[in-house]
């Protein structure tokens, strides 16, 4: 492939490309000199475009994820003769449980996962067990969970201002 015919005769694109290349070189040179002198704090070079941000770390935590994690406290594994809690290993990463690792036990289905594995699942705002899809929040705790979630949203109770209005069927 290459440039179209007749394109290489135009002076402007070559001049523009050379100017931009020179400015990029000059920028790197100035940053290197400032770094050597110890004044690199004066100039913020900005984010490194080649570095990929961790999507889990950059995503703000949702209130529901924090409440679910609070409701499913982490436990420390103590390996028994059976090979750990449950019937084998973590269904997310497929590794066996080892002594001292943190796990979370689901309240509805009693499935067990590594804390870090299920936390990543929860951080993506998933509210069901990764294995059987039963909800994390048991039926008897749904009202309390929804009240806490509503309180965490920071929205004042809309209906309390209109409680004097009766609805007719």
TrEMBL record:
Organism: Saponaria officinalis
InterPro entries xrefs: Znf_RING, Znf_RING/FYVE/PHD
One GO molecular-function entry: ubiquitin protein ligase activity
Gene3D superfamilies registered for this protein in UniProt: Zinc/RING finger domain, C3HC4 (zinc finger)
Protein name, per record: RING-type domain-containing protein
GO BP term, example: protein ubiquitination
A Pfam entry, by short name: zf-RING_2
PANTHER family named in the record: RING ZINC FINGER PROTEIN-RELATED
Signal sequence region: none
Zinc-finger in keyword set: yes
